[in-house]
Amino acid sequence: VQLQASGGGLVQAGGSLRLSCVTSRNILNFNGAGWYRQAPGKQRELVATITVGGTTNYEDSVNGRFTIDRDYALNTMYLQMNSLKPEDTAVYYCNIVPPGDYWGQGTLVTVSS
Q: Which has more confidence, 111 or 102?
């Protein structure tokens, strides 16, 4: 099973980005999934999750600014990121929850001040 994140880029503080995660199979129908991020010099952290039933949960620092969603028909998960801050700078990954072994390359989000 593979999940590939895309949509990152360079954005100014206060801006927005929308990340996409395409899955190789319809795993979103059977597994909770989430967005993880790893900032330079820091451990990877889980920032947003969505269950099969659609229940979402967010890490405190992104709550109210990020929104996780998914499209079952397209086997795709999204992360809408608003009011971005420099501390959101990281490589963002998507994976199931708990995570599988495959992480992919992730997508780099850089927020300038």
A: 111
